[in-house]
């Protein structure tokens, strides 16, 4: 578990990388404590985060405003279509939002906005695969598995830190499906 300003996060990984990062509510916390997850039926649960310390450090840096791009190996479990959408979510720059409709167009599936919304909601790796940056057509924040309040906080957090970093000579560059910062 990782403590954050917007609640506890459950982190799970394998030798291939991070496979799960989820905000905990009472229902999901009970499932984790029971030692099982529908996304990873054969997984075992351990309270030790030692092997995942670099991920924990990056999550904490994100919440402290010092990280805009996660540099960790990912191993999400999903269909080819889900993996494609989750990869597209990673390309949304820090501090910005994209509508599900625009995301559908980027994936060359302009009529699939509703399906892409559902896939984004099934994202097993919160923050690192930033599904909170994909919003409804009119900027609606509804539909985020972590809730509207948490999504609003994450977007405001990123916007504030992006503005702060830009004001001290940082610029953001989208490259190869990731967002990184570079010094001007």
Which tags fit this structure?
two-stranded antiparallel sheet; alpha+beta; 184 residues; 2 domains; two-stranded parallel ribbon; 6 helices; Arc Repressor Mutant, subunit A
Structural class: alpha+beta
Largest sheet: 2 strands, antiparallel
Span between N and C termini? Answer: 37 Å
Could you say what the CATH topology of the largest domain is called? Arc Repressor Mutant, subunit A
The top level CATH class name of the largest domain = Mainly Alpha
The shape, in one word, is globular
| Number of DSSP E strands | 6
Spans of at least 5 consecutive residues with low confidence: 172-184
The CATH homologous superfamily of the largest domain is called Winged helix-like DNA-binding domain superfamily/Winged helix DNA-binding domain
Provide the succession of SSEs.
EEHHHEHHEHEE
Q: Considering DSSP H and I runs of 4 or more, what fraction of the residues is helical? A: 25-40%
CA-atom Rg in angstroms = 16 Å
Percent strand: 15-25%
Description:
There is one protein chain. The chain has 184 residues and is an alpha+beta fold. It has 2 domains: 9-63, no CATH class; 80-183, Winged helix-like DNA-binding domain superfamily/Winged helix DNA-binding domain (Arc Repressor Mutant, subunit A). The protein contains 6 helices and 6 strands, in the order ββαααβααβαββ. It has helices at 26-33, 53-63, 80-90, 100-106, 113-121, 148-167, and strands at 9-14, 17-23, 98-99, 134-135, 170-175, 178-183. The chain has a two-stranded antiparallel ribbon with strand order 1-2. A hairpin with a 2-residue loop joins β5 (170-175) and β6 (178-183). α4 packs across α5 (113-121). The protein is globular. The model is unreliable at 172-184 (pLDDT under 50).
């Amino acid at each position: 578990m990782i403590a954050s300003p917007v609640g506890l996060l459950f982190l799970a990984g394998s030798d291939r990388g991070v496979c799960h990062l989820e905000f905990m509510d009472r229902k999901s916390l009970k499932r984790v404590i029971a030692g099982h997850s529908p996304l990873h039926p054969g997984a075992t649960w351990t309270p030790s985060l030692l092997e995942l310390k670099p991920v924990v450090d990056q999550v904490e840096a994100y919440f402290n405003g010092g990280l805009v791009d996660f540099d960790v190996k990912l191993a999400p479990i999903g269909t080819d279509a889900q993996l494609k959408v989750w990869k597209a979510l990673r390309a949304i720059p820090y501090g910005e939002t994209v509508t599900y409709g625009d995301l559908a167009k980027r994936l060359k599936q302009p009529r699939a906005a509703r399906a892409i919304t559902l896939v984004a909601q099934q994202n097993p790796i919160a923050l690192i695969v930033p599904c909170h940056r994909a919003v409804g057509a009119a900027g609606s924040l509804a539909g985020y598995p972590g809730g509207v309040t948490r999504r609003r906080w994450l977007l405001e957090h990123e916007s504030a830190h992006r503005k702060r970093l830009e004001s001290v000579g940082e610029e953001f560059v989208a490259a190869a499906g990731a967002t990184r910062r570079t010094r001007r």
